[in-house]
User: Fold N-acetylneuraminate-9-phosphate synthase from Drosophila hydei.
Amino acid sequence: MLLDIMKKNKCNEVYLIAEIGQNHQGCVETAKKMILTAKKAGCNCVKFQKSDLKAKFTRSALDRRYISDHSWGKTYGEHKEYLEFTKEQYRQLQAYSNEIEIDFTASAMDETSLDFLCDLKVPFIKIGSGDANNFPLLTKAAKLSIPLVISTGMQTMSTVDKIVEIMRQAGNNKYALMHCVSAYPTPSNDCNIRLIATLMRRFPNVTIGYSGHELGVVITQAAILTGARIIERHFTLDKGQKGSDHRCSLDPDEMQTLARSIDEFKSKDYLSISTRSATEVISILRGGHQLEQALDESNANEKYILDSELPCRLKLGKSIVASRNLPEGHIIQAADIAIKVSEPPGIFAEKFFEIIDKQLKQRVNEDEPITEHALSI
Ligand SMILES: CC(=O)N[C@H](C=O)[C@@H](O)[C@H](O)[C@H](O)COP(=O)(O)O
Ligand SMILES: C=C(OP(=O)(O)O)C(=O)O
Assistant:
């Protein structure tokens, strides 16, 4: 189904992804229970998040203290280690998903994890918003034969244009772009659902989807009626649990409501039309202030980083770091730099190719951020 949607062979189908993410609390048995519950709720796919912590984070980012009601460790690294499943555990979860016949995949949070997911032969690989500006990762992923679902949260339209250019240069049309706002939860007035129609017009040959972090299902239903044909929502067994994502997740009843609404839209032939106006969508979904805020047209033609996305961009946005010790005066080459979550951040990842051939006016040690200050003018 997913490939048919990506190739636009089917416009009246919606592929529903339950983003288990890290809502499994680091427990494989809980993860299996969530997989079965997502299947029963009517989801097409369950998705996890695969990280190789040293490939994704600098030492400084792993060592930063993580004081939060949602932390499983004194440092961010301890927290992430607690939540990270092993490759063997991934193989167990994939086998279980295959056994109960629901698609299984994950986000590749770094190049090491991309290679691992490739080896697992998952039906598609997710590129999360945090890596939408990670052009080396996208360039590598674009050359794979595995379809990609690429989220665009906490990014600008120029970065989205660059993603599409990378995929075009790779001759890859087996991908989808997901409208997304990286705020947990996303306020209704920041959802900007009409941007889905803008993306559809800007990239007519690309399947557009929606990865939502708002509360409830009605805004996601509006995204579907506006044209989104791949939907991702975080999934939880209990919203009250410890963990950053539970509050903006859908519980089993909500996920079932969303899945059933997709069936209802299909039965009423609502999906044979590729997109609908905000007025039509509000009428079909019987209005409401939350919906009207989410469908407001005022910011529908441009995509920029929202204030509500800044906490996530600071915590999980990727920037440029030295991949080895670089002396003062060094002329930067691609092999000298890497893209990671760094604390403090360096130059944001989307500038990766722009700083090549620039000269360092100060030494930068391996795994340290490369800042504007370190570059000669
Ligand atoms: C941008 C991105 O990757 N966001 C992910 C997907 O939406 C989230 O699941 C984060 O991994 C999660 O919110 C991190 O929470 P903490 O910092 O408590 O581990
Ligand atoms: C961050 C992720 O997704 P999104 O950007 O769609 O929230 C992810 O899939 O890991």
